[in-house]
Design a protein that fits this description.
The complex is a heterodimer of chains A (197) and B (302). Helix content of chain A is 71%, strand content 0%. Chain A is built from ten helices and no strands. Chain A starts with 5 loop residues before the first helix and ends with a helix. In chain B, the strands form four sheets. A five-stranded parallel beta sheet of chain B has the order 2-1-3-6-9. Chain B has a two-stranded antiparallel sheet with strand order 4-5. A two-stranded antiparallel sheet of chain B has the order 7-8. Chain B contains eleven helices and eleven strands. In chain B, strand 7 and strand 8 form a beta hairpin. With 302 residues, chain B is of the alpha/beta class. The chains are: A mainly alpha (197), B alpha/beta (302). The interface between A and B is medium-sized, with 24 and 15 residues.
Chain lengths: 197, 302
Amino acid sequence: MARISKEERKNGIISAALKLFSEKGFYVTTIPDIAEKVGMSVGNFYNYFTSKDILAKELVMYISEYLGEKIREINDKPISTKEKTAAIVSMYFAMANERPEMIEYFLRIYLSNREVFGEGCAGMVCVSPFVTEMMMFFNDGVSCGDLRDQDFFSAFGLFMGYLGGMVFLFGEKILPEPLSSYEASISENIYNALRVR
Amino acid sequence: MHCASDRDRPTLIWLQGVTCNGNTHSFLNLPYLPQLLAKYDLLYHPLLPASSTLSEVVQCKRPCDVLVFEGAYDPLMKRHEVLLSELLDYYGMRAGHIIGVGSCASFGGMFKASAPQRNSGLIFDESESSGPLLALKNKVINLSGCPVHPEWLGYTLSMIADNKEIKVDTLHRPLELYSHLVHHGCTRNEYFEWKVDAKAFGLKEGCLFYLQGCRAPMTHASCNRILWNDVSSKTRSGTPCFGCTEPDFPRNDLFHTKTNMSIPEDVPLGVPKRSYLTITGIAKAFHIERLEGKLIDDKTAD
C-alpha cells in the first residue's frame, strides 16, 4: 500500500480541522480532537502545526488561496463583467454546498475570533489572494466601462456581504429553497448595484 | 564627425519652433554654461550672444555641426519669413548631431496638445515615428522634459564636444539620463513601500503616488538623481512628478491619480497589477508610527 505523503497528511489535517472548527467552534475544538479525527497521535500532529493558532491562520490562508484561484480563473475568462459576476456567485454557492466547512470557517471562526488572527494576520495578510482577485474583478470592470467607479470597500462589502449573508441563512436552514435557486436573482442584484448607470 | 578640420570648435545653431522659451531659460541656469559654450562656436541662439543674426541664419548659408531645436514642429510656421521645414532640411542634413530639447521637440508636448493635427516632435508624434526628421533619426538625440533639465543638455553638449558616443533608448533619449525612473532617488520611497499617503502638496512626509497624481514610478528621468539647481526636485519639494519626459505628456488631471474602485489604473513599470495589489495589501497591514506623523516633531527618549 502506498505510503501517505506529508503533504497529503497535512491536507487531511486541514480538512478535519475545518470541519471540527466550523461545527464546534474554535475554543471547544482541541488538538486531540483533530488528531483523533485524522487518526494520528497528538505528538505527531505537532510535526505539522506547532500550535492551534498557527493552524487557524493556515486554514484562513488555505481558503483564501482556494477562493482566489477560483476567482482568478473567472477573471481570466474573455467574458463580460455581468457574466463574471454570475460566475463568482455560482462558484461561491457551489463551494457552500460542496465544502460548507470552508465558508463556515471563514464566517464563524475567522470573522468572530479576531483575537486569534490579529498577530500575523493583520489587515489583508491572510486573505490577500482572495481580496487581490476581487480587486482585479472590480478594476477590470471599471476599466472596461461596465462598473461604476466608487470606493473599493463599498463595492467589496456589497458583493461579499450579500454572498456571506445568503450562505449564513442557508447554514441556519432559514432559506426555503436551495442556494442555487437564488443564483440568478442575486447575480442580477449585485450587477445592477455595481454597474454604470 | 562634428568638427570640420579647418575649425577648432564645432558650430552650434539653436532654432525654435512653437515654444514658450522654457528650455532656453532652463539652459541659462546651467552652472557651467560659460565653460560649456566656450567649447562651441555659437552661431545663433535667440537669447544668448552669438555671431550671426536670425536673418543671416535663415539664408541657409552657415555651417552647422550641432543643431539644437527647441519647441514643437509646425509645418506652417516661419522664422523670419522662412518655413521651419526649409531650415530643418538644410541644417538637419549638414549637422552631425541634432538635439531636440524639451518634450515639445521630442514628442510634440504641450503645444501638440493644443494643435494635435499640426504639431509634432522632430521624429516622434507622441510615441509614433512620424516627425519631419524621421529620415535623419540616427542623428537625433531627444532630451524630453518640460523644460529640459539644464544638466541633461549640458551633459549631451559636453559629450558631443568631446567626441564621445551617446547611447540612446528607443525614444532616442540618452540612456545615461533616461534609464532611471524619477522614483529612483525619491526621498519618499519608504512612504511608497508602506503605502503612507501625502494628503496635500508641500509636505515633507508621505507618498504622492496614490492621492496626488505622482508619475515617478513610471517616468524615465533622473530628476531625483541629478537635482534641479543642484538642490531639489518636484517630489522633494512635495509636488507630484507629472511624467513630463514621457511621450504622453501632458496628461489630463496632472494632480489626480486615476483609479478604478480605489485601485490605481497604472502601477509601477514592469510590475503585474495582480502582484502589485497583493504586495500593497500586505504593506498596508503595517502601521509604522514613525511614518505617520511629522518627522520633525520633538520625540523624547522616555
